[in-house]
Design a protein that fits this description.
The structure holds 2 protein chains of 2 kinds. By secondary structure, chain A is an alpha/beta fold. Chain A is built from 7 helices and 12 strands. In chain A, strand 10 and strand 11 form a beta hairpin. Chain B has 24 helices and 12 strands. Classes of the chains: A alpha/beta, B alpha/beta. Chains A and B meet through helix 1, helix 2, helix 6, helix 7 and strand 9 of A and helix 2, helix 3, helix 4, strand 1 and helix 8 of B.
Chain lengths: 216, 516
């Protein structure tokens, strides 16, 4: 009996009887230069503007002031319990432990246990200014995907040297992590829906509040 | 009815009776849909809004047209070498720990997903909004084997709880307004889980809050999820899903098992190609610079997310589309729905008239190719367009909609007349005879002049032909008025000209006045 795989591939080959050139790249050239930056005058200012446009909070502070900024964010969002990824910066962790109950994710929390936690604090991998997008590659300072998903408030720390102009540069920076098999999550503002009369509602299933701390 | 003869209790809300292909063909369905004044208002408001947003976000990107060209080229490259890329994607996925299945058609895909659910011993799955599982009607298959499939996208939830069908690719409940959504949630949520709060108004924020509460319990206990995919990267085997609400992330992160049903045309060759599509798709689709969440996963990550990943590569007619060099550009589609939102026909009739989960211009070119043109529904779809071409201009992958529509009209006529030439074809062969020779034209015009004299003088005070009880012209004239043929032909007028006739300029003026 022919397998589905063999039959589908045979159908594809029959359907493409008109294609003579075996090399895909020679057959259909793509007129595009990959990975080009935009000529944005102030990339960091662009990121701030675009993230604010999504209705998310963003503050810019010197690197040394990040622990205080995280504490201020948690206070503003009225978060009293926090889950932290295992590799989060020690100074940040110490500051958080002083103001909130920190739940360890070891052994891993169940989804229901995570659901009872108010907030999560993570670092980031890349930020793309033009679309206001933050990418996580779920390294040790960002944690497994469920951590930055189930709690209702997400404080995300982005370093200015992680900020690129737009998506093409961002994809180029993320490509090694993707090729290494790491999961990647792009976040552009808080969760939202426009499914009822296309009226935008902020906050559905993902964290309803996104608070970005931008560190110089 | 006695308990013995009662049908088994359903686990999920029943969809409306009947099938997509059992629906009336477009001309009849459109007339029915046009009677729904409230739906027309909902659609007009929504499509006008989203068209404006798309245009604004596209205009922000300096090299938008170059991006569209690159996207069309990349997808063309994939289509023309699909066997190579499928094998490459399968190898990469398998190496990353994904179990890859192949499905020739809907029944085979449904069987595979159902068998995974039964093997896992689950009696419910949570679903990420997916066009392809609508196409194969997966939910009803799972229901039939005792597995409840829960839609978790807000609009899909509205459709599912409303015993309804989707009418738009991106916003399946676009035909519903907030008042209708409130009624559906208040009535149905309590039957299947956390009920809507009794105080809930029709404010979209409160409706979204009710959906969050209703679905949260399902997310937290889910052991298996089913998704489609926006892109599948051949180079790495990476699956990509774009979404807004976070329901997708819930489904693809929390359960132990994730099955993704992916049409074989969804492949992109490399990771780098994502920069083109992740710039074009959100701006074309929701009119945002970026959708709130995009998830990329490359096989199993120990300790993070589902540990049992499956991908079902689905044909279901796609290789038939591929086999038509003129029609295969339809496989470039990335399901953004810009063509629906810009379409004057879609805006008025809505999505239900197209007899498929793929409505609008993309539905008109895709369904008759995926399903063939044997059914009345599919024969009518290439005509569900005025050929205005607005869809060509907004499509992020430059699908030549109107060319394909005309091509498919030809295919439909060929199919219908394979054995029985029609009166229309007889009429066109007559026209062929008339146009072949000037003397033939003169004879025909003699007849036309006589007709014009009769119709113009005796029937038509206003010299316009409206409805006529004639076999072919009658159907054509139902929606159109035409001038009655003139009593004097141009040839007769030309022959009768005397040397003292007015100069050319004057006669042109006279003709213009005549027409006015």
């Amino acid at each position: 009996m022919t397998t589905a795989r063999a039959e589908i591939l045979a159908r594809v080959r029959r359907a493409l009887a008109d294609v003579d050139e075996p090399d895909p790249v020679r057959d259909v050239p793509v007129d595009w230069e990959y990975g080009r930056p935009l000529s944005t005058a102030d990339v960091v200012a662009d990121l701030v503007e675009k993230i604010e446009d999504y209705g998310a909070r963003i503050v810019r502070v010197p690197a040394a002031a990040v622990p205080d900024a995280i504490v201020a964010a948690l206070t503003e969002m009225e978060a009293s319990s926090v889950v932290l990824p295992p590799g989060l910066d020690g100074a940040w962790r110490a500051a958080i432990e002083a103001v909130a109950a920190v739940t360890a994710d070891e052994p891993p929390l169940t989804a229901s246990e995570l659901n009872a936690v108010d907030a999560v604090v993570t670092a980031a991998a890349v930020a793309m200014a033009d679309s206001g997008t933050i990418a996580l590659d779920h390294g040790p300072d960002q944690g497994r995907r469920a951590l930055s998903l189930v709690p209702d408030r997400h404080v995300c720390v982005v370093r200015v040297d992680q900020v690129v102009s737009a998506v093409p540069e961002g994809v180029a920076r993320l490509a090694p992590a993707i090729r290494a098999g790491r999961p990647v999550t792009w976040i552009s503002g808080g969760s939202a829906t426009s499914d009822i009369e296309l009226a935008r509602v902020e906050g559905v299933h993902g964290p309803r509040q996104l608070y970005v701390v931008l560190a110089d | 009815m006695s308990p013995n003869s009662a049908p088994a209790q359903r686990r999920t809300p029943a969809p409306p009776p009947g099938t997509w292909l059992g629906m009336p063909a477009f001309p009849k369905a459109a007339r029915e849909q046009l009677q729904r004044a409230e739906q027309r208002q909902n659609l007009a408001r929504a499509t006008t809004h989203i068209r404006g947003k798309r245009a604004e976000r596209a205009a922000e990107v300096a090299d938008w047209e170059e991006l569209r060209t690159a996207a069309a080229q990349i997808k063309t490259r994939v289509a023309r070498h699909l066997d190579t890329y499928l094998v490459q994607a399968e190898e990469a996925m398998t190496a990353a720990g994904i179990t890859v299945h192949w499905a020739r058609d809907a029944a085979e895909a449904n069987r595979i997903v159902g068998e995974i659910a039964l093997a896992k011993g689950v009696d419910e799955v949570v679903k990420i909004k997916s066009m392809v599982t609508q196409e194969i009607d997966l939910n009803e298959h799972l229901e039939s084997i005792g597995v409840a499939a829960w839609e978790t996208d807000l609009a899909e939830l509205i459709v599912q709880l409303g015993h309804d069908r989707p009418s738009h690719i991106l916003v399946p409940a676009i035909h519903r307004n907030r008042r209708e959504v409130r009624e559906i949630f208040a009535e149905e949520m309590g039957r299947y889980g956390t009920p809507a709060p009794p105080t809930m108004t029709d404010d979209p924020e409160e409706l979204a809050e009710a959906a969050r509460a209703h679905l949260r319990a399902k997310f937290l206990r889910a052991e298996m999820a089913v998704s489609g995919a926006n892109f599948l990267i051949a180079e790495t085997g990476t699956v990509v899903i774009v979404e807004s609400e976070g329901n997708g992330r819930m489904c693809l992160t929390l359960p132990e098992t994730l099955v993704s049903v992916i049409g074989i045309e969804k492949i992109l060759p490399t990771v780098a190609d994502l920069e083109v599509f992740l710039t074009l798709l959100p701006r074309s689709s929701t009119g945002e610079r970026m959708n709130p969440y995009t998830s990329l996963w490359t096989g199993v990550t120990p300790g993070d997310g589902p540990q049992d990943l499956h991908v079902v590569l689905l044909d279901n007619g796609r290789t038939d589309v591929l086999a038509d060099p003129e029609g295969r550009a339809a496989l470039r589609c990335i399901r953004c729905s810009a063509c629906l939102n810009i379409c004057p026909v879609y805006e008025r009739v809505g999505g239900h008239a197209y007899g498929s989960p793929y409505p609008g211009p993309i539905g008109a070119i895709l369904n008759p190719q995926l399903r063939g043109v044997a059914s009345e529904v599919d024969q009518a779809l290439p005509y569900a367009s005025s050929l205005c071409g607005a869809c060509n201009d907004v499509c992020p992958v430059r699908i030549p909609f109107t060319d394909i529509l005309v091509h498919l009209r030809h295919k439909v006529v060929e199919h219908k007349t394979e054995h029985h030439p029609t009166a229309e074809q007889a009429a066109f062969s007559a026209i062929g005879w008339v146009m072949a020779d000037g003397r033939n034209l003169a004879k025909a015009q003699l007849a036309s002049r006589a007709g014009g004299a009769v119709l113009g003088d005796r029937w038509l005070g206003n010299r316009v032909i409206g409805r006529l009880p004639l076999p072919i012209a009658g159907r054509w004239l139902r929606a159109r008025d035409v001038d009655a043929p003139p009593a004097q032909t141009f040839r007769a007028w030309w022959a009768a000209r005397t040397p003292a006739a007015p100069p050319v300029d004057g006669s042109a003026d006279a003709a213009t006045e005549d027409r006015a």
